[in-house]
Amino acid sequence: MSKLERAKVQTPSELAHAIDPKVDSLLEKCLSTIDEARSCKVRERFSHQSQAIAKAINILAYLQSCLRLDTKEAERAYHLLSAAYINAEHMLIKANVTHDSGYLNNAHSLISEIKSEWSHAKNERV
Fold it and tell me: What does pTM read for this prediction?
């Protein structure tokens, strides 16, 4: 069971009401930026890793600002997604401070789950 399922997002369509249509590409960019940070970690390029992590955090902050509260369903999704984005940001900050790739992996996994749910919700709307 995914973290989002455990957080009780009832239907993927709730996500479609809660976030901006450009989210799919932003989530993809965030994932690729985390991949870049992981690559820098392997090569011990910590200043580049910090820059990549900062980019990913900025993307997550923007995604959080795109959340909308225009319906009751969207309000529930807003709170769940907001918490997920904050959790991912905290993981990235810990990765930056400790240089522990486990935090990068966890953030990547969480964002991948969100992206998967978003893609599913987007396809349901079409």
Answer: 0.79
